[in-house]
Amino acid sequence: MKVKIIKLKSYSHIKKWVSWLNDKDVTKFSEQRFTKHTESSQKKFIKKN
Fold first, then answer.
1. What confidence tens digit (pLDDT) does each residue in 6-42 have?
2. Are 42 and 14 in contact (CB under 8 A)?
3. Residues 13, 39: contact at Cβ < 8 Å?
């Protein structure tokens, strides 16, 4: 598996990002597994950080 890190400059990849964050196999060892991620929640995260 390849991992690519990109700087978020816009919301163009947000659908893929949300899908990845909600993937049980990807997040099974992460605290993120307890959170339901949405496009809206991730836009707020981007603005905050």
1. 776 777 888 998 999 999 999 999 999 999 999 999 9
2. yes
3. no
Backbone angles phi and psi of 37, in degrees to 5: -90, 145
Instruction: Please enumerate in sequence order all residues whose Cβ is within 8 A of that of 36, keeping only pairs 6 or more positions apart, or say none.
Output: 22
Region class of 26: left (phi > 0), else alpha (psi between -120 and 50), else beta: alpha
Single pTM value for the model: 0.69
Distances (CA, A) of 31 to 10, 27, 36: 25, 8, 11
Alpha-carbon span 33 to 30, nearest angstrom = 6
